[in-house]
Structure formats: C-alpha cells, structure tokens
Amino acid sequence: MAYEFIQTRVEGDKVGIITLNRPKQLNALNGELMREMGQALKEFDGNEAIGCMIITGSEKAFAAGADIGAMATYSFADVYRDDYITRDWETIRSIRKPVIAAVSGFALGGGCELAMMCDFIIAADNAKFGQPEIKLGVIPGAGGTQRLPRAVGKSKAMDMCLTARMMDATEAERAGLVSRVVPLDKLMDEALGAALIICGFGRLAVMAAKECVNRAFEGSLNDGVMFERRLFHALFATTDQKEGMDAFVNKRAAAFKHQ
Ligand code: CAA
C-alpha cells in the first residue's frame, strides 16, 4: 500500500515499521498523515506475521507537533464539530500488539503526545521532548496534559506545559518518560532488537501484558482526555490562538492580548 506522508516496511518478516515522512515540515502531523498512520497500524495489527511495530521519524524530528499551518485559521466550530486535528489520533490506542516509539530529534506538542501513546519510547541521544503549545495560545490537545504527568510527575509536566521548555534525552530517561537512551546511529538497531525480543514471546501473553500495563496507567484517562479535548477546541474561539499561530506561520513574535 502506497502512502503519501508515511513509509512502511517489514523487518525480519515480523516487525512492522512506520516512518513519518514529511521531512520539510519536521514531520508535522496533519490529518491525512494521522489517517495513514492509523491505517498502517491497523494493517500491521491484523497481519498474523507481525508481532510488534515501531513508529519513527527522521534524525532531526520524530515530529514537531500538529501542523500549525493547517490549524492556524480553524474556528472553535471547525475543531469542535469535526473533532479536527486529533480525530484519527486515538486509533493507536486500539492497536493490540506492542508499538515502540523510536525517537530522534524533536518530539514536540503532538509529536511528544504521539510518542507517549506508544507503549514505550526508546530515544536517541539527540532527542528533545516538549509541549510548547502554550506559545501558540493553546494547550496540548492529544493527551499531553494527561499522559505527561503520569509519565514524569506533576511538577515536570507543569514546568513543560507552562514554560514550553524542552527536555533532553538524559532528563527524559531520568524522569521515566523514555525507557532507554542510545547513540543516534544505534537507535533503529536498539528498537528493532527490542521488537524482535518481543516477537519471540507468546503473542497472547504479550498482548495481555500490554493490556494490563495500560489498565494501570490509563485509569480515568478517557475523562481526562475528553476534558482536555473540549478545552483545546474551545481555545480556537480565542484571539490569542489566531495570534499565536499566525505569528508562527509568518515567522514573527506573538503579541498576546489575553482574550
Ligand atoms: N507545523 C507546521 N510546520 C512546522 C511545524 C509544525 N508543528 N514545526 C516546524 N514546521 C516547519 C516550519 O514552519 C519550517 O517550515 P519552512 O521551512 O517552510 O519555513 C520547517 O518546518 C522547519 O522548521 P524551522 O525552520 O522552525 O526549524 P528550526 O530547526 O529552526 O526549529 C522547531 C525547529 C524548534 C521544532 C520549530 O520548528 C518549532 O518550534 N516548531 C513548532 C513546534 C510546536 O509548537 N509544536 C506544537 C504544535 S501544536 C500541537 O501539537 C497541538 C496538539 O497538541 C495536538
């Protein structure tokens, strides 16, 4: 199956690899990319031969977030009515085989949220994680305010969401956001090695382990994510969202009016 915004391949006849492929936009996540990723994940999940999946990006960016250019002019009505921006993001949560995020470079905004939706994150030593949506006059809209505190605790999560600062790979490992950090040139070998180990175990036990760990991790997550979604959409009714995104698109400093 040919995709426009992702590439897929199978390694060792059992590991499905999805590579985000919008290099000029630092793999910014638009609706079509997320629809393609959902489709590829579902195909791998339904393929008997595949035991594990890996999502990865480029050396410079896993993904620099949701596509700001595409979002910049959306109104509250657009995003609320059609569940725009994050509509196809939840597909990954329905995938029953393990999904590993292999992250190098920027994993910001929706990119950090996508990595956190995967079952675990293996990071290259150049990885940078962040939730900088506050700079655009909005908040994380794909689970960031819910998954980040669960992963790194309230204080670091607040720090990242409120100041927009990035966390490097060392800090991310220390905080528990990522499971391992490896040199950039070893990233895919490490992720593939982990995936092949998983593929060697009993498929049912693997699926059960994933389901149980998620149960521990995601209690009441639905409420949290839905609450977040409504507020994320509501911010498209503000002047500051238009200002923040227009400023990014036009490469100027934002002047927020707090309305
Ligand atoms: N959306 C659209 N385009 C993006 C993008 C994004 N999220 N991030 C980067 N790009 C584009 C840039 O506009 C630029 O395009 P042009 O070459 O056409 O100008 C290209 O990618 C390269 O980016 P930079 O020139 O900015 O590269 P840099 O190395 O100087 O900076 C960066 C890299 C720090 C990641 C910077 O690009 C950046 O801050 N990006 C935005 C990050 C962000 O705010 N993400 C949150 C998005 S909102 C969100 O994700 C909502 C949600 O929760 C669902």
From TrEMBL:
One family name in Pfam for this protein: ECH_1
InterPro entries named among the record's database cross-references: ClpP/crotonase-like_dom_sf, Enoyl-CoA_hyd/isom_CS, Enoyl-CoA_hydra/iso, Enoyl-CoA_hydra_C
CDD domains: crotonase-like (cd06558)
One function term, GO molecular function aspect: enoyl-CoA hydratase activity
Domain of life: Bacteria
Enzyme Commission code(s) on record: 4.2.1.17
Keywords carried by this UniProt record: Lyase
Recorded family membership: Belongs to the enoyl-CoA hydratase/isomerase family.
Stored NCBIfam families: PRK05862.1 (NF004517)
PANTHER family assigned to the protein according to its UniProt record, in alphabetical order: ENOYL-COA HYDRATASE, MITOCHONDRIAL, ENOYL-COA HYDRATASE-RELATED
Record's protein name: Enoyl-CoA hydratase
Source species: Ottowia flava
